[in-house]
Amino acid sequence: MCGIVGYVGPQPALEVVVDGLKRLEYRGYDSAGVAVLADGRMDTEKRAGKLANLKAALAETPRSADGIGIGHTRWATHGAPTDVNAHPHVDNDNRVAVIHNGIIENFASLRLELEERGCKFTSETDTEVAAHLLGEELKRQGEDLAAAMRAVCRRLEGAFTLVAMYAGDPDLVVAARRNSPLVVGRGDGENFLASDVAAFIAHTRDAVELGQDQVVELRRDSVAVTDYDGNPAPVREYHVDWDASAAEKGGYDYFMLKEIVEQPQAVADTLLGRVGVDGTLTLDEMRLAPSELRDIEKIVIIACGTSYHAGLIAKYAIEHWCRIPCEVEVASEFRYRDPILNRQTMVIAISQSGESMDTLMAVRYAREQRARVLAICNVNGSTIPRESDGVLYTHAGPEVGVAATKTFLTQLVACYLVGLYLAQMRNLKFGDEINAVIEQLANMPQQVEKVLGTVAPVRELARSLADSETVLFLGRHVGYPVALEGALKLKELAYMHAEAFAAGELKHGPIALIEDGLPVVVVVPSREGRGVLHDKIVSNIQEIRARGARTIVIAEEGDETVRPFADELIGIPAVPTLLQPVVATVPLQVFACELALAKGNDVDQPRNLAKSVTVE
Ligand code: M6R
């Protein structure tokens, strides 16, 4: 949700900032803007639409720039995505430029107050209040931008990352954060600021993570961090373990296509180093004692979107292996229903970005209720793992496409590992039983590779359905969340009506939707582990086919029992039932991606969406 870049150094600031924005465009892409200093004068350019529009505008009017600049790519909250509402925003004297990610909740009263003092607003955004307040505070604070920023932040409510520069100091960018991401990149004689390390990874892999309610003063040779009262504040420095090439398209037309293909490696990387020589599992940062893990009486999984689907699958595995009751809840609903939590509850927060505001707020609520929180996350050092008691990182590498693909598969692997870890800590399974599952997991990269090698007919099928208005998805057991994930992918990428149902629920209402030629994708459980479920879903397929549905059946290779009822049959390798989602999801990702491409959609940046949702 909004990408932010700041730069101070000897390189042409405009180029560094625009290049950073390109790498952050997945965070928001309805408008973009930059501010640079040109001979001590604040120079801004901003355009509605994708970054390409801003680039075209910049190319029309070549500008000089001193060595500082800030840039923003927007996902609109307050005010439509127009040139005027795009960031940066400036004060009435055009001395301060500000970019912002988040929502300033008390902006309406602040705006009124500023207008009463004669301030002229040009946009409908909440951000503009910060620009005017900073302009006022600069005068009050003796032209000290950092002091002005601290004073402004003390007045703001809500979630924000603010980055500002000031015409009077060509060697300074100041930023602040509350409940919204911000990371510093340390270079040699230059420094960077961004919402995500991807923006500066081509320049440096040394990063500094900012804490809650901190202000950073960025100069060429220094990075100074304080709290909102000006006291020096502690920070965590770290080295990013991937390089710029990981965040490039690598010859693919879209990041999503590359990220789908990267899945075998991502799964393997997530398993790597988790099992010790003695066969015991280890998590990254487990700030929970073994005795605390043994005391857990209930697990609650909270997450959004695709991560929520990973949580639904985790429930089956955790309850089966650990016999601990496990609930799964959409994070945005969690804290509003007065959930029953206590010291014996373990909350597992699943979030690719580690920044989803709904999940973060649910984590904070859970900790207030004294529950122990374990994060499963793909972004090192992001807010959710930092605020949790323990974390297990997925090692999917950077995922740029807005639709989650490789991070979903690695979340599944991480969830399986957590289940096995709990079983190990609570002595619920013998070591060799755990090792047997680990071996099956270790085999998953090859199985996913196999699926990727056989998806050409899925692509063809997807293209043939580009004019369909609706696609339904059915599944049972772990196949149900897979069906939900297939429908979500299709909605977000192809902008089509897609809905998933538990196959058994069909006859309780949704079967009325079935009409002649309606495509219905059915995820069939393994015949081995859950024979009863398999047979029941075969009956469900017959029921919908009898009513005219065009059945697209995903089933284990060699499962001939479904062939007579499948208009289209997509084979997946036979794997243990609980692990089937790892292979069954892949054709659905390919299906949605190809169908969206056939409709001419941009699969990396679907309309109305942003990769990381940092507002509630
Ligand atoms: O970063 P998170 O995992 O917390 O994000 C959660 C959802 O916003 C995310 O999974 C979203 O549903 C994806 N676009 C799905 O492809």
Explained architecture:
- This protein is α/β, with parallel strands linked by helices.
- The protein has 3 domains: 3-247, Glutamine Phosphoribosylpyrophosphate, subunit 1, domain 1 (4-Layer Sandwich); 255-442, Glucose-6-phosphate isomerase like protein, domain 1 (Rossmann fold); 452-598, 3-Layer(aba) Sandwich (Rossmann fold), CATH 3.40.50.10490.
- The protein has 19 helices and 25 strands.
- The protein has an 8-stranded antiparallel sheet, with helices on one face. The protein has a 6-stranded antiparallel sheet with strand order 5-6-7-8-12-13.
- Strand 18 (345-351), helix 11 (357-368) and strand 19 (372-377) form a beta-alpha-beta unit.
- Helix 9 runs antiparallel to helix 17 (479-494), helix 15 runs parallel beside helix 19 and helix 17 runs parallel beside helix 19.
- The longest helix is centred in the last third of the chain and has 20 residues, at 406-425.
- The protein is globular.
- 55% of the residues are buried.
- The model has no long low-confidence stretch (mean pLDDT 92).
- Residues 304-307, 351-353, 356, 359, 402-404, 488, 492, 612-613 line the site of 5-amino-5-deoxy-1-O-phosphono-D-mannitol.
